[in-house]
């Protein structure tokens, strides 16, 4: 087959493929809303899980890619017939207790619970030290002798004694 024939054949194949309707390749539409009970359950579970990217939002509130993936995982777990506690255990096993928006109090999570109080205590100690150091730098009050001398100097219009 000559080169021109190959090119003509490739052009014909491309032309035929471009005429094929894109609907032949489309998948059946999947409804975005599941039944109300399942959807409510997925939302309730998503509100118990922390977005690991945002950290101050639940995966229900976050639009980060990881939060979208975690919501999808929750829905897949629900579809697989797992209970809420099994889903939370799966997420905890995979991402640690930090994925829980309200992690349980145990030795591994004490810092999560005590961290804000610890930071507040450190800030209070730093503030007290700053205030004390500034007070130490203030000019001490004058003694009675120093006041009398200053008054004499001011009354004499600044003439040295």
Structural class: mainly alpha
Number of DSSP E strands: 0
Order of helices and strands: HHHHHH
Q: Identify the overall geometry.
A: elongated
Query: Please, what is the CATH homologous superfamily of the largest domain?
Result: Cytochrome C biogenesis protein
User: What fold name goes in the CATH topology slot of the largest domain?
Assistant: Helicase, Ruva Protein, domain 3
Ranges where pLDDT stays below 50 over 5 or more residues in a row are 23-32
Describe this structure in words.
The radius of gyration is 37 Å and the shape is elongated. The protein contains 6 helices and no strands. The model is unreliable at 23-32 (pLDDT under 50). Helix content is 59%, strand content 0%. The protein has 161 residues and is mainly alpha-helical.
In short:
The chain is an all-alpha fold and about 160 residues long. It is built from six helices and no strands.
Please give a handful of descriptors for the protein shown:
161 residues; mainly alpha; Helicase, Ruva Protein, domain 3; 2 domains
SSE inventory with pairings:
Blueprint: H1 3-19, H2 36-46, H3 65-79, H4 84-95, H5 110-137, H6 144-155
